[in-house]
Design goal:
- The chain contains four helices and no strands.
- Helices cover about 65% and strands about 0% of the residues.
- By secondary structure, it is mainly α.
Length: about 90
């Protein structure tokens, strides 16, 4: 499979769709994180990850990505530059 074939099979998302997915994932992870069962799992002394990461780190990463996208949109509008991404290419 070449690059053109890969591009044809990958979904094309608008910025709004990307933001909605990121925010949805963040909310789902927060819901799981608040679950008593998950809290019990994470509190176990046997719970470990290779980088000492937990679900809160994933939530934080999604929040930072969301903020970075908002910054791109803001500065693109303020500086009058075209967006770093082009929603018109999405179908």
């Amino acid at each position: 499979m070449n690059d053109q074939d890969t591009q044809k099979t990958q979904p094309s998302l608008t910025t709004t769709e990307i933001m909605t997915i990121i925010l949805g994932c963040e909310q789902i992870l927060r819901f799981v994180q608040a679950s008593p069962n998950y809290k019990q799992i994470e509190a176990s002394e046997r719970f470990s990850t290779s980088n000492d990461l937990c679900l809160g780190d994933a939530v934080q990463a999604l929040m930072e990505i969301h903020e970075a996208i908002l910054n791109i949109e803001f500065y693109s509008q303020v500086e009058g530059q075209p967006y770093a991404f082009n929603d018109s290419l999405a179908t």
